[in-house]
Design a protein that fits this description.
The structure holds two protein chains of two kinds.
Chain A (H helix, E strand, L loop, with lengths): L32 E3 L11 H12 L1 E8 L6 H8 L24 E9 L2 E9 L14 H18 L15 E6 L8 H10 L5 E5 L7 H17 L14 H14 L2 E2 L6 E4 L2 E8 L2 E4 L8 H11 L1 H25 L6 H10 L1
Helix pairs in contact in A: 7-8
Chain B lengths: L6 E3 L10 H12 L1 E8 L6 H8 L17 E11 L2 E11 L12 H19 L15 E6 L8 H10 L5 E5 L7 H17 L12 H11 L4 E2 L6 E4 L2 E8 L2 E4 L8 H11 L1 H23 L14 H93 L2 H11 L1
Helix pairs in contact in B: 7-8
Classes of the chains: A alpha/beta, B alpha/beta.
GO cellular component, one term (chain A): cytoplasm
Family (chain A): Belongs to the TRAFAC class TrmE-Era-EngA-EngB-Septin-like GTPase superfamily. Septin GTPase family.
GO molecular function, one term (chain A): GTP binding
Chain lengths: 350, 418
């Protein structure tokens, strides 16, 4: 039951797809701010606990995509990140299997729990990326998938009777695996990141970093950062979304020194100095994955999971999704006059 | 939370996403929180004093008189801070509620105000370029409804008002100035009020009981509704402490003494336990209902003709198309009207021009005639002047001649002349 004045016409003016405002009541709509001094404890700060409890109850969604040529250790890295078999490792293309003609998108979801926090984690794999002879436009299926998730969310959001919690399948984070050539970025890398950095948060990582010495690593990272900057590629965390000075200083350090993270992944444990550690055994020693002197896996893990996970989701929701939505609503409604053909086109867009 | 068919995996070590709630909470702390309270009650039921007591401060609210023409709502926002939590608190007061002789329209301004806040949020949500995460939420999260401690039953006005609001806002009924009613009467009064509310199917806010940590206390509190409160900003010394109280000749009513009134319970429920739930219910239930009604009012449907699901977007586009056609039609109409008006004006002007022309010609004619007449007159005058001059000239001539010649001759001349 809706009380209140009923519009005389149903088709009210829709200048911006906005319903016509009702008669304004006799009260000022924007109240003014007055600072009040507090004496004695009230209990306002308990809202933090209340909020925490509610979020623990509802749980979290997180969708991470991995992109890179096969053999760069994508699945292993994701499994190491989440300490479980969230991604099935491909064993390469055997003779019976055919290399897929195009990039495939495979999304696998699992529920993991830690410390009372339930997370629905979806790992989106992109087998076939960069594996063909002609890799032109191989980012297109990936961009299409990302936009499809935005579209799904938009469709739900725009319903009249909406779900209490819209299922979130949007890609929150895209790990792009750079081959550790030691030279520079490949044209494919640049093309992909140029196109996709505008629609999704891209975190570039240097894969299989155990093939580079410390000096080689530093040089390579510098060169990669330079190349990304020269090509105008804004990877996550993007400079323009730093909320305040605190964020900026923290993120500047990560952008200019740590990224791209040079990582090594492993799901095997070895005994080192009396401790069981994840590592890779080689004739010349054991590479400890979580040892910061050996590789930057721990930095990546802390960055993606322990400090910036919520921010990755928020940037996706508040910025990438909003950009998609605005473009979508504008494209479909703002072009007069509507002829019969444009009407047809619009239907096919939907 | 169901797993929706996802497999559960166990972790072989510490990953670290258990910090997620902290990450989320930290972001909220950075942004700050909003809480909006609407106080409805007749003048003098102790609304302002209670709010002052609840938030331990004296909000600058002038005392109102009983002589308001109609019900007005006055909203004021305050920024409060406790440890690292910043709260934007908005208190909306009803001024003049129940004071009119004819109370028929008393609750309409309140309903309109609540709807207006929903509308503002909806408008923002429907914008193409929107900024919801920085939107100052003015939607009312809780309505404290003050009932006079008469000890009898609910007033008709109270029932009507609460009924018109119960699907729009979380209502917590409160018995104001509860120190004017005795404990035994109070219990009876509370029972009567609750049964009347239930009997009239008024949906008041129920403290949530689904979370084990708070379900017990919330259930108990639900049984104490409506809260009988006393407010005071004055302090009285009891023992060696200064407490908020009201001092009477027969004793001191302590605001924060649970034996004296339910103030502590109200504060506990409203702020410390359920503030977040109140906000969530407002957004997930009341706002969604408003939005649904409003969109349906505008003619949008989720299911179109032939029961095929219609996306809001398709409906938007169809409406936009219709609107555009209507716009074109109106434009054409206006243009036609304009052309018509111009023609008419032109005709009028032409007519006026004609008239002026004829008048002009007529005047010209008259002017010519006058001119001729005057010419004639001038001619006549000139002739007369000429004749007169001739006469004068000859007269002067004669006169000079007369002086020179003999008188006889002049006489002769004179005679001749005569």
């Amino acid at each position: 039951p809706c009380a209140g004045p009923v519009e005389s016409k149903n088709e009210a003016a829709m200048s911006e797809l906005v319903p016509e405002p009702r008669q304004k009541p006799v009260v000022p709509m924007k109240p003014m701010g007055i600072n009040a001094n507090l004496l004695g404890y009230i209990g306002i700060d308990t809202i933090i606990e209340q909020m925490r409890k509610k979020t623990m109850k509802t749980g979290f969604d997180f969708n991470i995509m991995v992109v890179g040529q096969s053999g760069l250790g994508k699945s292993t890295l994701v499994n190491t990140l989440f300490k479980s078999q969230v991604s099935r490792k491909s064993s390469g293309w055997n003779r019976e299997e055919k290399i897929p003609k195009t990039v495939e998108i495979k999304a696998i979801g699992h529920v993991i729990e830690e410390g009372g926090v339930k997370m629905k984690l979806t790992v989106i794999d992109t087998p076939g990326f960069g594996d063909q002879i002609n890799n032109e436009n191989c980012w297109e299926p990936i961009e299409k998938y990302i936009n499809e998730q935005y579209e799904k969310f938009l469709k739900e959001e725009v319903n009249i009777a909406r779900k209490k919690r819209i299922p979130d399948t949007r890609v929150h984070c895209c790990l792009y695996f750079i081959s550790p050539t030691g030279h520079s970025l490949r044209p494919l890398d640049l093309e992909f990141m140029k196109h996709l950095s505008k629609v999704v948060n891209i975190i570039p990582v240097i894969a299989k970093a155990d093939t580079m010495t410390l000096e080689e690593k530093i040089e390579f990272k510098q060169r990669v950062r330079k190349e990304l900057e020269v090509n105008g590629i804004e990877f996550y965390p993007q400079k323009e979304f730093d909320e305040d000075l605190e964020d900026k200083t923290e993120n500047d350090k990560i952008r200019q020194e740590s990224m791209p993270f040079a990582v090594v992944g492993s799901d095997k444990e070895y005994q080192v100095n009396g401790k069981r550690v994840l590592g890779r055994k080689t004739p010349w020693g054991i590479i400890e994955v979580e040892n910061l002197t050996h590789c930057e896996f721990a930095l990546l893990r802390d960055f993606v999971i322990r400090t910036h996970l919520q921010d990755l989701k928020e940037v996706t929701h508040n910025i990438h999704y909003e950009t998609y939505r605005a473009k979508r609503l504008n494209d479909n409604g703002g072009l007069p006059p509507m002829t019969a053909e444009t009407e047809e086109n619009h239907e096919s867009n939907l | 939370q169901q797993n929706d068919g996802y497999r559960s995996l166990s972790l072989s070590g510490h990953v670290g996403f258990d910090s997620l709630p902290d990450q989320l909470v930290n972001k909220s702390i950075k942004q700050g929180f909003c809480f909006n309270i609407l106080c409805i009650g007749e003048t003098g039921t102790g609304k302002s004093t209670l709010i002052d007591s609840l938030f331990n401060t004296s909000f600058d609210d002038p005392v109102s008189t009983h002589f308001q023409q109609n019900v007005r709502l006055r909203a004021q926002t305050y920024e409060l801070q406790e440890s690292n939590v910043r709260l934007k608190l908005t208190i909306v007061n009803t001024v003049g509620f129940g004071d009119q002789i004819n109370k028929e329209d008393s609750y309409q301004p309140i309903v309109d105000y609540i709807d207006a806040q929903f509308e503002a949020y909806l408008q923002e949500e429907l914008k193409i370029k929107r900024s919801l995460f920085s939107y100052h939420d003015t939607r009312i999260h809780v309505c404290l409804y003050f009932i006079l401690p008469t000890g009898h039953s609910l007033k008709t006005l109270d029932l009507l008002t609460m009924k018109s609001l119960d699907s729009k806002v979380n209502i917590i009924p409160i018995i104001g100035k509860a120190d004017s009613i005795s404990k035994s009467e109070l219990q009876k009064f509370k029972k009567k009020l609750m049964s009347e509310l239930a009997g009239n199917d008024v949906q008041i806010y129920q403290f949530p009981t689904d979370d084990e940590t708070v379900s017990q206390i919330n259930t108990i509190m639900n049984g104490h509704l409506p809260f009988a409160v006393v407010g005071s900003t004055e302090e009285v010394k009891i023992g060696n402490k200064m407490v908020k109280a009201r001092q009477y000749p027969w004793g001191i009513v302590q605001v924060e003494n649970e034996n004296h009134c339910d103030f502590v319970k109200l504060r506990e429920m409203l702020i410390c336990t359920n503030m977040e739930d109140l906000r969530e219910q407002t957004h997930a239930r009341h706002y969604e209902l408003y939005r649904r009604c409003r969109l349906e009012e505008m003619g949008f449907r989720d299911i179109g003709p032939e029961n095929k699901p219609v996306s809001l977007q398709e409906a938007y586009e169809a409406k936009r198309h219709d609107f555009y056609l209507e716009l074109q039609r109106k434009e054409e109409e206006m243009r036609q009207q304009f052309v018509q008006r111009v023609k008419e004006k032109e005709a009028i002007l032409k007519e006026a021009e004609q008239q002026i022309h004829t008048k002009f010609e007529h005047l010209m004619l008259m002017h010519q005639e006058e001119k001729l007449k005057l010419e004639k007159k001038r001619k006549v005058l000139e002739d007369e002047m000429a004749m007169f001059n001739n006469k004068r000239a000859s007269a002067e001539l004669l006169q000079t001649q007369a002086f020179v010649s003999t008188p006889v001759v002049s006489l002769k001349r004179d005679k001749d002349r005569k």
